Prior knowledge:
By secondary structure, the chain is an alpha/beta fold. The chain is built from four helices and seven strands, in the order E-H-E-H-E-E-H-H-E-E-E. It has one domain (15-144, 163-178): Rossmann fold (3-Layer(aba) Sandwich), CATH 3.40.50.300.
Amino acid sequence: MSEAVSTGASAPVWEEEIRTTDALQTQAAAERLGRRLAAGDLLLLTGELGAGKTTFTQGLGRGLGVRPGIISPTFVLVRIHPSLGQGPDLVHVDAYRLGSSGEIDDIDLENTMDTSVTVVEWGRGLVEHLSDSRLDITIIRPTGGGSAPVQGTAGLSFDYDDDPDEERVIRIAAYGPRWKDTRLS
Ligand SMILES: Nc1ncnc2c1ncn2[C@@H]1O[C@H](COP(=O)(O)OP(=O)(O)OP(=O)(O)O)[C@@H](O)[C@H]1O
Ligand SMILES: [Mg+2]
């Protein structure tokens, strides 16, 4: 990397907020976003355990038209979902267990960036250097948030089917030239 792209200091070029009341709505919102994405796009997903980052990514995958089967990749770190058509692949990363951007460099996302949409759960502070542009997406539980997650379940959270439908606030902050003239709504 020749130089670090400034991250925290620069302001987003736009921000949007979406509210959903269940997982299907979150997936539908993500699916609409997924249809707008292109190879090279970088998305960071932030939110507490169980906020809906993987649920959101499932919708993105549908919008992109990639091979289904998106699950929490906590132990695998990175999964590539190939396009079923002409569009970009989806590279889905879970950086929960990565401690430094050095470790993220080891999985060589640069290699797939140009042909894929790269989505990184827990990527804030680790992957901004991969592109001059990004969507920084935060999923918030306005109710029931703040309760401590059950210890030790982070990597085993493949199936939350028992979770009740709840409201989520999804904040999308766009950074960089890629998004300057492209709003979502
Ligand atoms: N409005 C909503 N949007 C998204 N998910 C919701 C909503 N309401 C309830 N849920 C449930 O919350 C859970 C979110 O789980 P998910 O694995 O997507 O979270 P995560 O942020 O990826 O967690 P982790 O940090 O463990 O990877 C799912 O079981 C989903 O059904
Ligand atoms: Mg997840």
